[in-house]
Amino acid sequence: MDKINLSVTIAVITMFISLFLSFFLVTVKTEHKLSNRLFAFFLILNAIDISVNLGYFFDIPLNARVFISSIFFLQLPAFYLYVLSVCYADFKLKPKHLIHVSTFLIANLILLPRFYTVSLASKISFLKKSSSMLEIQFNHVLVHIQIILYLIAAFMILRKAKKIYLENYAGASMESLNWLFQFTVALSTFYFIALLKNIFKFTEYPDISESLKIGLFLFELIIIFWYLYKALNNPGLFRNIDSRLKLVADIVSEDKNSAQLIDSEKEYNEDLLKLKSYMMEKRPFLNPSLTIQDVSKDLKIPVRDLSVLINHKLEQHFYDFVNTYRIENAMDILRDVTKSKVTVLEILYEVGFNSKSSFNTAFKKHTGNTPTSYRKSL
């Protein structure tokens, strides 16, 4: 009884927080309205799914209860679309995205003949023998296949978006992608635990399943609070990239196939000297939101050619290329005895970073030391 009370209490709290956060995401003024609405939809679906566990408190018809349970089939598609909207600035919902409701429709359609359309007595009999019913077994397998495929798809989108970002941007959106990756890992862990719960549910250890169920509610609550904390403390965190941008590897491959790749050493050297001179004289790296498009516009070099020059010829991501100049500038400041009172935080903002963690990571990658230890070693 205590476990049931604890489970219900945590479920109610999680539902309330999910609905509160979804209301906040829908009403808050932001330029990322679609992303917010998609995540709000994900949270609402999550709250509806949790409500099934409170079914014995309310007189909910069996048809409605089973239908509510099938809402789970919409959760990961909603999350996947959310990932797309965060990663790509020009993402829009289109009719083709209706394909993502197919598993939800299939799961309900196969229940029509022997559950939804039969008498109450037949419904009760069906649920009593649910573990041996072909429809339930099929849906059980289908939902786990869906979980695996959507999580893999989400990780693939994040991997590609990160590569494109590194090749074209030098701002703070990397933190957004890193955080979204962490969030997806947390969500994957959640669904893995849910899988274990379902396995134990049909064994001779149902108590373990019930304990895992309570743990899932707690874990879910922590994940939601984590998102809420990030959203409130980093309102500008979720910036995205242009989906029309291509990976340099794909550009090089296309050019090789079409015999358009220019291997002129003279032209390469000229563009490289022009780029390095521009970086030293104009110091564009001081702009924390610098993109390869900005550099392309100033140098009058096509984005495609500039991207190949930096990412392919120099074998260095644009992100790392720009950060090298930022770190060199930071090192100059740290070596300057007249600026010994300037804090590391002030320095990182001065040289073009807008995040302490990204500055420390880049500095250590470039020098092997943290900014503080580097200053002390001088």
Automatic annotation (TrEMBL):
Matching PROSITE patterns: HTH_ARAC_FAMILY_1 (PS00041), HTH_ARAC_FAMILY_2 (PS01124)
Q: Does the keyword Lipoprotein apply?
A: no
Q: Name one Pfam family in it.
A: HTH_18
Q: Which residues cross the membrane?
A: 6-26, 38-58, 64-86, 98-116, 136-158, 179-200, 212-229
**Which Gene Ontology molecular-function terms are recorded?**
DNA-binding transcription factor activity; sequence-specific DNA binding
SMART domains from the xrefs?
HTH_ARAC
Q: Which UniProt keywords apply?
A: DNA-binding, Membrane, Transcription, Transcription regulation, Transmembrane, Transmembrane helix
Protein name per its UniProtKB record = DNA-binding protein
* Source organism per UniProt: Pedobacter cryoconitis
